[in-house]
Amino acid sequence: MRGSSWRGRDNRGQIENTAPTEPFGATIDSINIKTLLVEEDSPTIRDVEYVASYNWLDGKSPIILVPGSPPAWTPPVGEMKLNPDSGDVFRDINAARYSSFPMEPTFRALKIMQAEFDMQSVDVVGCGSTLGNLLRFAGSSSLSKPFRFDVDVVGDAVLFIRKEKSPTELIQGLQGYGHTFPEAYTTWDSEVKNSCSHQRVVQYDFGGLNFLVRSETDGYVRDPEMHKVHSLKTQLGDVQDLDAALGTVALGQSIVKTGRKLQVNVQGTKVPQSQIFDMKTRRSNAPFDMEEILPRIWLNQTPKFLIAYHNFGVFHNPKVEDVRDKVLEWERSNSARLSRFHAVVRRIVDVVRDSEDQQCEVSWDGQGPLLITKQIGPVRRALPSEVAKSFTS
User: Fold this and answer.
1) Does 225 reside within a domain?
2) What distance in Å separates the CA atoms of residue 107 and residue 156, rounded to the nearest whole number?
3) Would you tell me how many other CB atoms lie within 10 Å of the CB of residue 252?
4) Domain extent for 78
5) pLDDT for 241-276, tens place per residue?
6) Has residue 2 been placed in a domain?
7) Exposed, middle or buried: residue 48 (CB in 10 Å: 0-12, 13-18, 19+)?
8) What pTM, to 2 d.p., does this model score?
9) Is residue 183 within 8 Å of 389, Cβ to Cβ?
C-alpha cells in the first residue's frame, strides 16, 4: 500500500458512496437548493494569500515538516514507458496519518508561519473535499455522490472536518498512471525527501466571508532566476527554537498505531503560490474536459495545471500551463452556481454559530435537501483545547 494520497488521477471517478453510515442526530435545518434565496450580486474570490503549508513524512510516526515544499517538476529527457499504477492509497491522507485531529497540522503550520495570525477574522475553515462537496451540491450536479462531514466552531471560525467511513479508508484497485507519472516527472527537494504529501493553506475573501482552504498540491515549477532560496528554518532560526515559535502551545496527542505524538519539524522552503500546479493523466484517445478540474482549482486558487496524455504509458511532451485566465472565465460563467454556493456556506455558518453546542453535521444523500443535524455519539472536537485556545485568546 502506498503511503500517499491519490495524486494525478487517471481514471474517471465513479459515483461511490463513501459517506459514513452512523445514525444521524436531530435535524436543525435543511436547505433546498431549488428554493434557496441568493443575493443578486455574484460573489468572486478576492485577496488571495498563501498562509501556511506542511509536508507529511512517509513512515510509522506522524511527522510534518513546516513549511515543507511540493515536489518539483523535473521531467526526464526523452520519452519513457511507465508501468501502470498498482496497490491501494489512503482516501484522506490527513486522517490516515493523524486520525485524532486531522485539522490540527493545518493550525500547527499556521501558528509557526503566521505567529500573529488573526483567527478572529476567519469565518470558514475547510478543505478541497468539504468545500468541493458543497460546491457540487450548489451546482445540482448529475454526479449525485452523497457526502457527510462534521462542523465545529473555534472562536467565531466555523471548521468543516472531512469525514469518511474510516480514517484509514483506502481507494483500491488503482488504474492508469496517476502515481507512476508524478513519481517519474517530479522530485522532492532534498530538504523534504521521504515526504508523501504537500498540504497547502490559502486565505481569501469570497463574498464577505473569510475562507481558509487546505488542499494537497501536486507540484511546483522552479523559478530559473532563483539560484538560491532561503528556507523558513533560516528565517526562524534552528529547529531547537521550535518551542519558541509555537509559544506555549503543547503538541497534541496522537492515536496513530504507534501511539506517538504529532512531531513538527521546521524544515523546507516557502514556495510562492504562483509556482504550484495540479496534474491529471489521461489516455491520448480520451480528451480531458477542463470542467472536471476547474471547480477544484478555483476553490484552491491553483494557478497552473498539467494534463498529461499517454499512449500505453508513454507520455508525449507534457507541459505545465498557466490556467488563471480559464479559472476567471469559469468564475464568470458560473456566477449563479457560485451565488448558491455562497448562500449555502453562509447559511451553514449562521446556523452552526447559533446552535446550542456549536457542533453539527452536514450531509447530503445525493438527491434531496442538504441537512444540518446535531452530532450524536462521542464528542468530536476539531482541535485539541490547547490549540484552539492559542488562536482565540
Assistant:
1) yes
2) 15
3) 21
4) 27-392
5) 433 333 323 322 333 454 568 999 999 999 999 999
6) no
7) middle
8) 0.86
9) no
